[in-house]
Amino acid sequence: MNNRQTETDVVLIGAGIMSATLGSLLKELVPDWKITVIEKLAKAGEESSNEWNNAGTGHSALCELNYTVEKPDGSIDISKAIKVNEEFQVSRQFWSYLVNSNLIRNPKDFIVPVPHMSFVQGEKDVTFLKKRYEALSNNPLFQGMEYSEDPAKLAEWIPLMMKGRASNQPIAATRSEAGTDVNFGALTRILLTHLKSKDVDIHYNHHVDDIMRTSRGAWELKVRNVDNGHVERLAAKFVFIGGGGGSLHLLQKSGIPEGKGIGGFPVSGLFLVCKKPEIVAQHHAKVYGQAPVGAPPMSVPHLDTRFIDNNESLLFGPFAGFSPKFLQTGSMLDLITSVKPHNLVTMLAAGVKNASLTTYLIKQVILSKEKRMEALREFLPNAKSEDWDLLVAGQRVQIIKDTAAGKGMLQFGTEVISAADGSIAALLGASPGASTAVSVMLEVIHKCFPQHIEAWHSKISEMIPSYGVALLENPELIHEIHTSTAQSLGLTREFDLQSVM
């Protein structure tokens, strides 16, 4: 960037998986558009997208119990599980397109097959898991899922978890070989390297201090070089705010009415990590359990196989924590400065409604390592403290807003906030986040570029064959997508849908 005002078609704020995905989609749709990426850190994917700041689960509802809810009549609502699974299929299709187009050379650099499992203990949770399995396994998206209460079978699936386990209560698990481990940090860097080769301007160590509407209806960004403090101006026709927890402050600075009344609540995470090969080799799965009473959905305990930098490790957690920062590299004043006159009542209402969550977070923050090891031993009875280290993971900012259910409701998910004219959009929220990045960025495209959708339809369909199609009404297409994306991405042992076709 130079001293005079620079003009561009698109500005992407934040060099994480969301900006990388939107930039990659737009470059395929309109190669001649000038795209500029602004990132305050020295490298791409260093906040929430970083491989050590998330569990790397390709969220597809194969194992996450919080995506299926037991209704008052005892039946299981699987609607959210279906939505999350379908959105992950969209991500797989786009990644496959990039591989088949030689835009990604080696998919194993960011995705590998890892079974996804749910594991429960106690009669009540076993009953729930069985009903969940019955509801999901009859759905074409979840064919191939297995269920067992047999300790011998579970010892085959999860030998490390079964060692030393007492047999005084019922246990059960489901298993799907269609699961994956995704290194979103690596994927982010791959996508941004590709974008740079396509003449996308990427400016690291630059921070967006302000966003202002110009008299011509475009946006002017005040951009500061964090190394030398030099301030520059950048004019853009379209701005995407994809700065993770930092997005809320920038949305507020934009002044668009759609951003009024929205607040944020930061939640940090910690994991226990084991890198000892003799232990890691005994576990090959992502195993999710039930969240403790009062815990936020993002705190569902799970024991995960991870592949990072060609090394295999195990992560257990997350343990929730609290920091007023909205980013790991943020300010201790982030939470306070996010409170504005237009969201004050909303934030106060959220504080009253979520007193139990606050209590839970306080208890989590003061946990000793031994207390965290006790939680791990619910999964690994023989776990030894000296084999596990504590890892501080990324910051997440949950959305707080007024809904039909009341004022100050805490939202667990992601949401696109955009101006009425589509000239600016921001992504707020957290999980499932990165796994559904392609679907979320397609939502941004639909909201912000409706005048181009008809012209872009053919290219989007080329990149994502299921685009505009209800997958559940097309089991043959589900089978085709799973087979083709498995081949392109180097994933094996995908489930077979012949039984439902």
From TrEMBL:
Q: Which GO terms describe its molecular function?
A: (S)-2-hydroxyglutarate dehydrogenase activity; L-malate dehydrogenase (quinone) activity
**EC numbers:** 1.1.5.4
According to the UniProt record, what class of enzyme is this?
oxidoreductase
Q: What catalytic reaction does the record list?
A: (S)-malate + a quinone = a quinol + oxaloacetate
Q: Which GO terms describe its biological process?
A: tricarboxylic acid cycle
Which cofactors does the annotated protein need, by name? Answer: FAD
Query: Which keywords does this Swiss-Prot/TrEMBL entry list?
Result: FAD, Flavoprotein, Oxidoreductase, Tricarboxylic acid cycle
Biological or metabolic pathway of the protein:
Carbohydrate metabolism; tricarboxylic acid cycle; oxaloacetate from (S)-malate (quinone route): step 1/1
Family membership, please give it.
Belongs to the MQO family.
Protein name according to UniProt: Probable malate:quinone oxidoreductase
Q: Which organism is it from?
A: Fontibacillus phaseoli
Lineage of this protein's species?
Bacteria, Bacillati, Bacillota, Bacilli, Bacillales
